[in-house]
Structures are given as C-alpha cells and as structure tokens.
Amino acid sequence: MRSALPLPRTRRAARGPADIAVVHGRAAAFAALRRVLAPPLAGTWFEERALPDGRRYLRWAGLFEFIVAADGRRIVSRRLAPASETPRAFETYLLGQVLSFVLIARGLEPLHATAVVVGDGAVGFLGDCGRGKSTLGAAFVRAGHPLLTDDLLVLRDDAGGFSAAAGPPRLKLFRTPARRVLGRGLRGTPMNGRGGKLVFPLGARATRDAAPLRALYVLCPRRTGGDVVIRPLSPRRAFVELTRNTFNACVLDAARLARQFDLAARVAAAVPVKTLTYPRGLDRLAAVRTAVEADVSV
Predict the structure, then answer these.
(1) Residue from 116, 295, 127, 114 nearest 219 by CA
(2) CB atoms within 10 A of CB 236
C-alpha cells in the first residue's frame, strides 16, 4: 500500500508499484458525487453506497469519506475533521473497514476476528461486535502472546492448511478494560467521537509476521458464572459460524458470495473451529486464556 496521507507506525514498503494506492480526494469531486446519491437518513453515522461503475462510496459522519475503486487498487480519501481531533482514526478506519472492501474487491475474504500467536501458531477469536474479541486478545498480549491482528483476519492457503496474516499493531478497547487487562503503561487515543473506544498501539507486543492458523474459537460469553467450556464444532456448524463472521455482509454479488462460501467450506474442513463459552467478567479472563492455551497444546 502506498499512501499520500501519513500512516503512523506503519512499515515502509519496498520500492516499485504499489498494490493499493491511497490518494487525496478533492472536496468538489466528493460533493458532485453526493449530489447524485439519495440523501442518507437523518443521524446516519456510517454510509455505504455501491456506485453504478462498481466503485464503493464510504462515509463516517464528521470523520472522513472514501471511494474504493471497483478493482480495489485505488482508494480516494478525504478528511471531514482536523487530524488533530482524532489522530489515530484515519489509520484505524483505513486499515480496517475500508481495507475490508478493498480485499473483497481483490478476491480475498477477510474474517471478523481478533488473533494472537500462541506457541508457533495463530489462534483466532470470532464473534459479533461486543462479544469481547479484542478484550480477550488483550489478555493474551498481557501474558506475553503477540497480537497478530484485531478485527480484520486475512487467511491464505498454506500447505494443506491456512496461514493468518498480520494486521496493524494495535488494539481497540474501552478505557476500563484496557487499564485492567493491559495495565496503565499504555496510552490510547480516541478512535472517533462516539462510544469512548480508544486505539492502543502495541509496538513490539504485536508481530508483523504471518503464522499458521491452529484454531478458531467462536466466543459465547454468558452473564452468569460457570466454568470455561470449549467444544469442537462439526464441519457443518463450523461453516455456518465462519459464514456469519466474514466482513461486510452488505456486499452480496454472486462472485463474492461464491468466494465466501468456498473459504468457509475449506477452513471448516482444515482448521479446528470450536465454541468458547465462559462467564463474562474481566477477572475471569486469565482462566479463559489458560483454557485456550491448554486446548491448543493438546
């Protein structure tokens, strides 16, 4: 990726043509595009539109707007707020939600997951927003396991299995879980002006290298007490969970759905997929981590 806008703490790319170019967009060009689009509903926070020529228009109210090319090779971006107000927001959204549209356009199917490296392999946590993927990932980081990625998990075929690609070295967490799980040494910056989530850079506590995928866990936290329970899923049920936890359900063209189903079927057949049920509570995360560590080592 080559970006005309600075991306803090990212690795410099090798010379040569870029796979993806991020460029500045002119306010007039975006205004002209918006004039031909139906106006969004009042109070809309996130807006996504498929354009007639195959491009995707994305807008986060008060933050920025993007146009993703039909082939995923070009991203036109425009800030709607000063960078000083949300210094990590552009990087976070670009390398997360926006990049997910790029990957789909390029024929890749990202999963909605947080992953860490345990031993010599990657362990991924699947689940809807609010299930605690990032918080559980933070518990593994606190115990010395490097973060692999948070939110956007990209898999590649690897000698009969799959390897998991590394994402940006950061976690998105609310302030209280971050302090209690990661400790007070890290300082986060606001992800946006809503909800209170912060972006915490991890530096050396995250890996930049891909790792073989050893297992995927579907998070099933419960409000009441009880033991940590891990149960394997049949390939059929694993397929359903993998399909549920892919990115961007709004992209529904036939080619994309075929790739989505193909990836879910192949991962379900090659990688152990299990449910991870545990009592919710920050004080129980160490027990959850220990159970996963033991399960992976079997």
Answers:
(1) 127
(2) 9
Q: Report which of 10, 20, 33, 7 is spatially closest to residue 102, judged by C-alpha positions.
A: 20
Cα of 160 vs its chain's centroid, Å: 24
Rounded to whole angstroms, the Cα distance separating 4 from 15 reads 15
Judge residue 66's burial from the number of C-beta atoms within 10 Å of its C-beta, 0-12 exposed, 13-18 middle, 19 or more buried. buried
111-170+205-297: CATH topology is Rossmann fold (3.40.50)
* pTM of structure: 0.93
Domain with CATH 3.40.50.300 in the chain: 111-170+205-297
Question: In this structure, how many other beta carbons lie within 10 angstroms of the beta carbon of residue 90?
Answer: 22
Output the tens digit of pLDDT for each of the chain's 298 residues.
888 877 765 566 567 788 999 999 999 999 999 999 999 888 899 999 999 999 999 999 989 999 999 999 999 999 998 877 777 788 889 999 999 999 999 999 999 999 999 999 999 999 988 889 999 999 999 999 999 999 999 999 998 899 999 999 999 999 999 999 998 878 888 887 776 889 999 999 999 999 999 999 999 998 777 899 999 999 999 999 999 999 888 899 999 999 999 999 999 999 999 999 999 899 999 999 999 999 999 8
Amino acid at the residue 148: L
The Cα 154–Cα 100 span in angstroms is 9
Which string of DSSP letters, residue by residue, matches 44-90? -SEEEEE-TTS-EEEEETTTEEEEE-TTSSEEEEEESS-TTTSTTHH
